[in-house]
Known about the structure:
By secondary structure, chain A is of the alpha/beta class. In chain A, 45% of the residues lie in helices and 13% in strands.
Amino acid sequence: xxxxxxxxxxxxxxxxxxxxxxxxxxxxxxxxLERNRxxxxxxxxxxxxxxxxxxxxxxxxxxxxxxxxxxxxxxxRDASQxxxxxxxxxxxxxxxxxxxxxxxxxxxxxxxxxxxxxPADLGLEMFEHRLDEGGxxxxxxxxxxxxxxxxxxxxLSELVRERGVRITRLAHxxxxxxxxxxxxSSTLAHAFQRRMPLE
Amino acid sequence: xxxxxxxxxxxxxxxxxxxxxxxxxxxxxxxxLERNRxxxxxxxxxxxxxxxxxxxxxxxxxxxxxxxxxxxxxxxRDASQxxxxxxxxxxxxxxxxxxxxxxxxxxxxxxxxxxxxxPADLGLEMFEHRLDEGGxxxxxxxxxxxxxxxxxxxxLSELVRERGVRITRLAHxxxxxxxxxxxxSSTLAHAFQRRMPLE
Lengths: 199, 199
């Protein structure tokens, strides 16, 4: 018999978080109850706020609490470049790791017919509409390297090519600072085949 | 510039959970937003419920939403045995791992003068009061093996001994199923010194 049904329910609810199993969920529940009740209430409030107020940007589909995200709303961004990413985390990684000044389009997933995820779920009509509006000189495909992501990249490239817009993708190869011995063989083979002239 | 201040706030709030750093917190926040908004709301509700409704048992100090916990309220438990544990998790471990039928007293911590945790914080007045009520034949000390926990056990044993009640503590030694090579040297030395006649 559980000591407290409410605590059991909290433990069960915490397991919806990725990477949290039954033992960590229990540790989290007791930690909050014993040491940090005000923070538990603050977390509850933050969850409610985010679910109720955060929606999708009407231009690029990333998460935002307004109608447009800060990138789309910024006047000084270069509207001639459009970078297509899988998720808002990828957008943030590019924002914080590069000095890219163009705009984004966030697919919020990849094409996956087996899971029933088709072009409509990725907002590709909206993507085509943006291409047809004109003013875009380059589409940068920054999707991942899974099979689904590569199929998605191929599908996107067809849409872009039909409209005669320049299309690029991120370079693949050996990560900076990584020794050759730690690189998987397919990356190494790719990097070897696509070797560049030394400048 | 963060894409969404509300998401940043949720990421910050998730970091109050033990074992959750900035990267996992961000992954959790996006996971909830992208895939599991209803579960995020359920988690917020569970947190609110627990903080508002779960208090301490008036007999043993463990967590409960009623006045007394299910163990203290049960009629068939043996009131002559009282097991002292550090935390509700320890109580649950004993409940699920042994067939102990007595009652508990939960310290909700250990004596730690450096952190300002004294006898009053562990409810030791309540503990003495329970001893003085009579009817207890054996006090089982089931605190941990940290220096603070051992000092606490010593302090408790003085209180119990003054009243002429039998006092026991859990056996220390080599864990069942553990090879000698994996046991730390102080446990091994203890187990060797306290060797038992083979029955």
